[in-house]
Design a protein that fits this description.
169 residues; mainly beta; 5-stranded antiparallel β-sheet; 3-stranded antiparallel β-sheet; 2 helices
């Protein structure tokens, strides 16, 4: 699972449903105070259990932004039982665009880009398999996804796995 400032990710092992972000029952991957400060100062580190490197994890620094370092955390989850995740990403960056070139103009135009994606999903992992959880953009729509990470010789493939919408508990 991936995290950084502006992203929230909570893991609920052995559950078909999700609780509130602030629930004590979930494991906060991203969005907690500690990870927020670490991401802000660029001192957050990845936690790996040995899942093969994917294109996303290999190029994670490309997702860094000012005061927000991207990171990943890998977890052991029970096989044959559902695990659910509450995921969210909110890009609320403010971009200051220079004014059009004109004589005497001294004001600046402010434009707010506000792309977000939120979802709660559940899936049943198989034993001895690795998974990557995140978001994908198709056209202008955002989707939460789970992919199986499969090593094929020197290459690594991501194979989509069936997921379900996880209701609130």
């Amino acid at each position: 699972m991936f995290g950084q400032n502006g992203a929230s990710a909570v893991l609920f092992r052995g559950s078909t449903c999700v609780k509130d972000f602030w629930s004590e029952e979930g494991e906060k991957v991203s969005g907690g105070l500690g990870s927020a400060f670490s991401s802000f100062f660029g001192s957050v580190s990845n936690t790996s259990l040995g899942i093969p490197e994917t294109e996303t994890s290999r190029n994670l620094a490309s997702r860094d932004s000012l005061l927000s370092k991207a990171y990943f955390r890998e977890y052991l989850i029970p096989s044959g039982q559902p695990s659910s995740m509450r995921l969210g990403f909110q890009d609320a960056s403010v971009f200051y665009l220079p004014p059009p070139q004109s004589v005497g103009q001294t004001t600046y135009r402010y434009e707010r880009i506000n792309r977000g994606c939120h979802g709660a999903i559940s899936f049943v992992p198989d034993a001895q398999k690795d998974y990557e959880v995140g978001f994908t953009w198709v056209g202008g729509a955002c989707h939460a996804v789970v992919n199986e990470v499969v090593r094929n010789g020197d290459a690594v493939e991501l194979i989509p796995v069936p997921i379900a919408i996880a209701p609130d508990c």
